[in-house]
Amino acid sequence: MWPGLGLAVLVVLGIPAAASGADERPVGTVKVAQGAAFVVRADQDLPAREGLALLERDVLRTGANGRLGVILRDDTRLSLGPTSELRIVRFVFQPAQGSLGLVLRMARGAAVYVSGKIGALEPTSVRFETPVGVVGIRGTAFAARIDAE
């Protein structure tokens, strides 16, 4: 009927797909993976391997013999020991726009955290959540252990 309608529909339908792809910008990468180590994304267990891109909302999970080391785009470093689980809840690193934020939620296991640029530039925008409390970051390094019970 209308020759341009098909093209207009394709363009309109393509916009949400392009916008959702922008939300999938990598927030970091796996640097070290040993033993049973996975990145859980959209209910799929991806075997962790060096160089694997990490996305906001990814869950980092290790088994009984697993270890995982990651570095986020702002140079934040995370290391997970055996039987650990940590979710990257929020990651925003746009210093030119003054938009910074990092929220990590640890469910179990052992982790070491070393602050990156977000923690240095805007420490109040960083939170490390656990089942028993929230750690406010003030440009620091720490270790945490959450037992299964």
Task: State the secondary-structure class.
Answer: alpha+beta
Shape: globular
Helix content: 10-25%
Report the span from N to C terminus: 66 Å
Rg, rounded, reads 18 Å
Report the total helices. 2
Instruction: State the total count of DSSP E strands.
Output: 12
Domain module tally: 1
Topology order in helix (H) and strand (E) letters:
HEEEEEEEEEHEEE
Structure description:
- The N and C termini lie far apart (66 Å).
- It is built from two helices and twelve strands.
- It is globular, with a radius of gyration of 18 Å.
- Strands 1, 2, 3, 4, 5, 6, 7, 8, 9, 10, 11 and 12 form a twelve-stranded mixed beta sheet that branches.
- With 149 residues, it is α+β, with helices and mostly antiparallel strands.
- The protein has helices spanning 5-22, 117-121, and strands at residues 28-34, 37-41, 44-47, 53-54, 59-62, 67-72, 77-80, 85-94, 99-114, 126-130, 133-136, 141-146.
- Mean pLDDT is 86; it is low at 1-22.
Secondary-structure map:
Elements (H helix, E strand, L loop, with lengths): L4 H18 L5 E7 L2 E5 L2 E4 L5 E2 L4 E4 L4 E6 L4 E4 L4 E10 L4 E16 L2 H5 L4 E5 L2 E4 L4 E6 L3
Parallel strand pairs: 9-10
Antiparallel strand pairs: 1-4, 1-6, 2-3, 2-5, 5-8, 6-7, 7-9, 8-9, 9-12, 10-11
In short:
With 149 residues, the chain is α+β, with helices and mostly antiparallel strands.
Keywords:
149 residues; alpha+beta; disordered N terminus
